[in-house]
Amino acid sequence: MSFRLLLFSCLFFVQNLNAKEMVQIARFGTNPGNLKMFIHVPTGINELGPVPIVVALHGCSQTAGSMAEQSGWNKLADEYGFIVIYPQQKLTNNTSLCFNWFVNRDIDLENGEAASIFQMIAFMKNSRNVSNVFTYGLSAGAAMANTLVALKPSLFSGGAILAGGPHLSATNMFQGVRALVNPIDKTPEEWGENIIIESQDSILPRIIIYQGTKDIVVNPKNADELIDQWSFVHGMDIVPDKEEKSLNGNWQIDRIVYASETDPEAIIYYKIYDVGHSLAVDPGDGPMQGGKTGLFATDIDFFSTYYIAKDFGLIKEL
Fold it and tell me: According to the 3-state scheme, what is the secondary structure of 219-258?
């Protein structure tokens, strides 16, 4: 069965707000976490050729549609030829529409919300010739994205954590709020032992960390704890190997890189000055412009999604 026919048989409806941009997949598995699944597939994409997939997770009070609109992932997908999966939380799971990254039953390979997202990825892999899988998230979506990579590192080529926290920093809602506002200080080994590598020969995912220095929702110290967690997994120290101050002349952006034996940019940390709990965007039609301002997106002339896509290897140009 072709991908288009498979989609037709599984479609529930086309999302009214972005009818030309996203479709909802009604049946993608048993869906133990009771999530919604939306996808964006560029028009004319090669149905037989290998295609990368990005799983983009929204933050609290957001939807798949607002994440797509503000992040600008669909524009990049159209230009560079990859598919975007947008999981969406339901009010029945969390009244603030946060992914439950702090609930044990929802961060399990076989159960809950994480399992539903893994089923979404499996659905796409069964439908397409998938080359690489990446995940990306903001806030609660970032914490869940980090958990997805931590649960199954071999599945992902990279993960982007925007204003999120380490895997297993909380096991209930109250701990979750406290962990983001006042993060737990652990050693790299203490954080890293929560991540199980299936094989010593596994290619480890590249980790991208993004954090605003004025974020009062997610304490910027979480970025340090994330670096600790993944530096241990990659078997490297926490001393930066390269620091690009005022990236491309933008004083608000520092790009800090940590190298491993196998990846010269195993961990990339975007430190965003004078920005709170928000995506950095640069609305416009230029090749390095995109995104849209909103409650969780701020125009600082920096299209963060573009740079993350480039770090993932989805954009090959200079």
Answer: CCHHHHHHHHHHHHHHCCCCCCCEEECCHHHCCCEEEEEE
C-alpha to C-alpha distance for 239 and 222, rounded to whole angstroms: 17
Q: What DSSP line would sit under 2-25, residue for residue?
A: -HHHHHHHHEEEE-STTTTT-EEE
One-letter amino acid for residue 304 of the chain: S
Q: Measuring CA to CA, which residue among 308, 244, 301, 310 is closest to residue 275?
A: 301
139 is catalytic: yes
Catalytic residue (one of 66, 127, 139, 278): 139
Q: What is the pLDDT of residues 204-231, one digit of tens each?
A: 999 999 999 999 999 999 999 999 999 9
Residue whose C-alpha is closest to residue 295's, from 137, 32, 9, 58:
58
CA dist 265 and 91 (Å) reads: 38
Q: Is the pTM of this model over 0.90?
A: yes
Q: How many residues does the chain have?
A: 318
Can you tell me the distance from the alpha carbon of 240 to that of 256, in angstroms, rounded to the nearest whole number? 6
SS3 at position 46: coil
Phi-psi region at 262: left, alpha or beta (left = phi > 0; alpha = psi -120 to 50): alpha
Query: Is 197's pLDDT higher than 90?
Result: no
Q: What is the pLDDT of residues 162-190, one digit of tens each?
A: 999 999 999 888 898 898 999 999 999 99
Q: Are strands 23-25 and 11-14 parallel, antiparallel or unpaired?
A: antiparallel
